[in-house]
Structures are given as structure tokens and as C-alpha cells.
Write a structure and sequence with these properties.
The structure is a homodimer of 209-residue chains. The first copy, chain A, has nine helices and four strands; from the N terminus they run E-H-E-H-E-E-H-H-H-H-H-H-H. Chain A is an alpha+beta fold and 209 residues long. Chains A and B meet through helix 3, helix 4 and helix 6 of A and helix 3, helix 4 and helix 6 of B.
């Protein structure tokens, strides 16, 4: 399959980790978000939201939206499982992951930063905007995961870890103060020690610059 | 079960619709977001993200994040189904719903509007911010759903319709131009003719004012 991806995209990073964890090979196709390639008409027919990631299956069918792709991957390639089977336990993991996917990432992504700058905000004001949402979001995330497991919800990484690591990459980039979130950065270090996460890192991508 | 809800909250509205469609009774507990009741310490222990909805089950267990709650409801009360069983078809419905839940709602919710005002933006600038994200989000949504079914993906309402109707309520409130989105407002009218949607409307809630 083909993955339309951008090296620094938080949501592309989630899918790269999951594909690696599942051992599913893919061809990465870079979409340069800073250059606006996601707004080209040809790409927009594949992904009407004009974002990344887009996953094109071997039969040509197309999937978009990272959280939908992650669940599809987990159903299609069940091992190792990214979500528990029990509906309640599953909803707890999804709630933590969705906290980052809805309360942090959308207010902190590239198009919002670009818009704030167009509206005349300084770099300092943009940094404050980013960090305030991150601080609230990471505090909620830390309260929703288990307090004492190697990964967010157990002995192996799952959906919550897959959303956490890319969001922390963005946090480091923006200089967020992560000292109140030692449990999260410990989990991050444990994840990045795994080949599946390490190979998915932005810096390890062919389009990194 | 108990649902912590706010009459005008887009995400609470989603859960009210789903509970009504499933025929699951619940006790609504209003949380006045404008008065900041979601930030009270007692509430934050229930919902660390300090938002609504929060669903408290009869055994006292707590679920947060509307998209996680919706999937839990669909697994726990399978009829009528909100999502198809087929993994690919399921991912298409989720992608449309998540487009609204991640690309529109989080940049258009109350806390972001309050923040823009704190940053000195006028009502006109805030309205332009809201409408630009809505226009992009509704255009993507319209391209992701089926072109010719009574509801977004078939003959009965599902997850995408449950996300669409509350987002359109917000669009009407902010004066968005919906003339390019006739298919969406037609689906909205069809949904609101159903008792499950009508009873979930903001204006029909005990805390409406």
C-alpha cells in the first residue's frame, strides 16, 4: 500500500508507527504541507480534507483520517492489537487517544499556526497558544492513562502511545515545558527504544529536511 | 446512566442523539460551560479534560470523549447500528465523522472563541475564523459521504449523521452560508424529522435558555 505522508505531520507519524508495529510494508509518498502540495487538485480528489495521511490500498481503495485508518489497520492486521477487545476498556484507551486527537492536535497544527500569523500574531503569541493547549491536553491525558504500566495502558504500546509520541515530538519542537509530565516522557523514551517507533520518527523519513 | 451535558455543546448533542436512537434512557445533568462549571474540581475528577459530555454508567464507571462514547454505545447496544461491520465501510463512515470531530469542532468550540476574544479579536474576525473552518470542513464532508442516499451513508442515520446535525446547528448559530451544501441541509431536515434527533436538539433540553 501507499501512504501519503509528511515527515513532520503528527497524524502521518501515527500511521507510520502503526504500520511498523503491525509489520505492514508501505511505500511512502511525501506531500510537502509547507509548500501547499496538499491543496493541489489531484491530491484533493484522493483526500477531500486536503491533509495527510492518505492510505491507498493495493486494490486502489482510499482511506483518510488517521484515527479511522488506525482502527481499520487494527481490524485488518489484528496482531499486535492496538486496542483491547472489551468495549469499556477499549473506550478508555480511545478517550485518552482522542483527547490528543481532538483537544490538542487540531488547535496546534500547521494550518492554525499559519492562520494565527495571517491574523497578525507574533511568534511569542503563537508559542503561548500552542503551549497552553498542550499543557491542558497532556494534563488530561496523564489523568486518563494507567498510573503504573510500562506503556499508557499495559505492557505493550497501543493506540494511546501511538498518539502520544507524535504529540510529544511537536511539544519538543515548540519548546513546551514537559517537566510536569514525567510519566509521559518516560513512556515516550520506552516507545522510541522500539524499532517500530524509531523508524517512524520524522527525522528518519525520506522527506525530512 | 447519567449524562453530563450542556444544551449548546456539539459533542453532548451527539451523545443525546445516539442514546435516543438506541432507546437508552438517561438522566441529564447540566454543566454550564459558559459559567465555567466544567472547571470545578469535583467535575474535573470525573472528566480530566474538563469538558462535556461525561457518561456515568449505572455501576459508577465513567466514560469521556464523545467519539469513544459513541463507539462504546454502538457495541453495548447494537441496534440500530451506527457503524457498518465491514472494516473498510466502517472506516469510510468514521473518516467523514472524524473530519467534523477533528477538523471543524475543535477549532470552533467555546474555549477557542473565548481565547480569540482574549487575544483582542473582534466579533467579525471571530465569525470569519469560524466560517472558514466550517466551509472547508463541510466541503470535505460532502465529498466523503455517499451522493444519493437518504442519510449520509444509507437508509438510516449513523455516526456521520450524528456528527453532522450538531455541527450544522452550530453553523446556523454563527450565520454560515450553507447554500453550497444543499445535500447536507437536506440530510439535516430528514434527521430532525425523527423523534430521536428532535428530542436531542439544544432547544429541547432542560438547561436551554
Amino acid at each position: 500500500m501507499k501512504l501519503y505522508t509528511y515527515w513532520r505531520s503528527t497524524t502521518s507519524y501515527r500511521i507510520r508507527i502503526a504500520l511498523n508495529l503491525k509489520g505492514v510494508g508501505y511505500e511512502p509518498i511525501p506531500v510537502n504541507l509547507v509548500a501547499g502540495e496538499q491543496r493541489a487538485e489531484g491530491y484533493a480528489t484522493l483526500n477531500p480534507a486536503r491533509g495527510v495521511p492518505t492510505l491507498v490500498l493495493d486494490d486502489g481503495r482510499v482511506l483518510t483520517q488517521s484515527m479511522a485508518i488506525l482502527e481499520w489497520l487494527d481490524r485488518t492486521y489484528p496482531e499486535p492489537a492496538l486496542l483491547p477487545d472489551d468495549p469499556f476498556e477499549r473506550a478508555l484507551v480511545q478517550a485518552a487517544a482522542l483527547g490528543l486527537a481532538t483537544d490538542v492536535h487540531p488547535v496546534n497544527n500547521l494550518r492554525v499556526v499559519q492562520r494565527l500569523k495571517q491574523m497578525g500574531h507574533s511568534q511569542d503569541e503563537t508559542v503561548a497558544w500552542m503551549n497552553d493547549w498542550m499543557e491542558q491536553g497532556f494534563a488530561a491525558f496523564a489523568a486518563l492513562i494507567r498510573p503504573d504500566t510500562p506503556f499508557c495502558f499495559g505492557d505493550t504500546p497501543g493506540l494511546a502511545d501511538i498518539c502520544l509520541v507524535p504529540q510529544l515530538y511537536n511539544a519538543h519542537r515548540w519548546g513546551a515545558d514537559l517537566t510536569p509530565f514525567a510519566r509521559l516522557t518516560e513512556i515516550e523514551a520506552r516507545c522510541l527504544a522500539l524499532p517500530a517507533f524509531a523508524a517512524a520518527r520524522p527525522e528518519a523519513q525520506p522527506d525530512a529536511n
